[in-house]
Amino acid sequence: MKPPVLHFPVVSSSGQHACRIEFDWLGTERYYVDDRLVLRQWSLLGKTARFTVGDVNVEVRSQLKERQAVTEVLLNGRLSSENLLSAYNHELSANMRKLGLARAKPMTWKSWLGRVVVWAVLAYVFFAIFKWLERNAA
User: Fold this and answer.
1) pLDDT tens-digit readout, 37-64
2) pTM for the whole thing?
3) SS3 state at 87
4) Is residue 114 domain-shared with residue 86, that is, in the same domain?
């Protein structure tokens, strides 16, 4: 599965412009207007990108919410595109379900603590067996 590439149009006094956002797996975002790079930034946990296209102020908000990524486009402060990543989120969750990686419920503090305790007990048992074998081998 490739990182998403998003497209949206911007109409300004100078005409219609094709905008594109390219993401990569390491958090780099590249913003293009008419195939010309206008902004590049690193944002793994969410950030707002601002640039102008003609006389239009473009603001792109990207953020990670629970089990999905959300990207909104605001043109001159008004919401233009609510979630450009909805199709990508759907495809990603379908692939995760195929691989058995999707959780039915989000992880809570209690379930996280339970997993930590189980792993700590397993580690203790492993090291206890290792020490017992070490002593008895001599």
Assistant:
1) 999 998 866 788 999 999 999 999 887 7
2) 0.63
3) helix
4) no
Number of domains within the chain: 2
Count other C-beta atoms under 10 Å from residue 41's C-beta. 13
Q: How many residues does the structure list for the chain?
A: 138
Q: 49-60 burial, b if ≥16 CB within 10 A, otherwise e?
A: beeebeebebbb
96-118 pLDDT per residue, tens? 677 766 555 666 888 888 889 99
For residue 61, give the nearest of 29, 98, 88 by alpha carbon: 29
Residue 82 sits in the same domain as residue 118:
no
Residues 35 and 92 in one domain: yes
- Sign for the CA dihedral angle at 64, 19, 87, 76 comes to positive
